[in-house]
Amino acid sequence: MWPLLRKWPGPRSRIVRDFHATVRRIGRQVLVRHKPVKMLDVGEGQADWSFIGLLIKALAEDPAGERRLSHKEVMTQINTWLFSGFETTAASLTWLLIELAKHREMQDRLRIELRQLPDDAEYSEIARLPYLHSVVYETLRLHPPIGTTTRIASQDDIIPLSAPISTKSGDLVNTLKIAKGTHVRVPIRPVNTAKEFWGPGAGTFDPERWWNISAEEDGEADVVGGGGSHSGSSGRIMHLAFGDGSRACIGAGVALALMKVVVFVLVRRYAFALPHGAQAQIQAVGEPVARPQVKTRTDSDPAGTAVMMGIRKLMG
pTM (2 decimals)? Predict the structure, then answer.
């Protein structure tokens, strides 16, 4: 919000600068490896519709001698893809394994379901597994990788409220006036864990709230919420880990697919446990992507420690 602070010579600024430099270097390597001829010539009469292929195509000059995207714009897209495509999903997978380690009965139940499919199962089969879908959705609800997001009002608007609130002057209002250009901060994590939406057990890990009742044609399970719920713009019961509306995360489908496939491979073959027991206190630390850390009770280590995981390979 204050760009000048990015130049402040503090430790956080150095971390951010190093991160951006690393991502830019990787982005340049991606462009060098995927030359236009290599990316667009993928077969007889076939075009490369992958993310990188489309960016390379947009970078190339069209017959009129103009580029649809500049080199800087392509690099920005790659940087966003590298950050959003692995950091958030990796954090979500970490939280999922922690919850399974804390709830061994849920882990065993999930493993039984996963082993109903062969090792080489198609993703369409994996996506239809109801308990796997419930575990993934509950993890994203309780531990959204991004805690808040910001939107800018494109026009004057009035937001209706479900319950009246008191203004600074003491007046009760049922609506909020939002002027064009206003920055609106959306509290994803508080909404995802609000008792008003999810019931008295909003702060607990409960995959049962997402128990499936049907399957959509595309293979993704339809879900309903138990003990309270929040409906998105589509009318479906949902969480806000991917946002909502026309500005929702465009990579939601890819993230869900990646999480389900990784869990399918790992939980079938390995058992996960927390060395300090299921009662270990684990907190979310850091922004914008919240990572898990073990809470400590000593003054010498106020920041906590990384979460250690015990992994045991299963027979059969």
Answer: 0.74
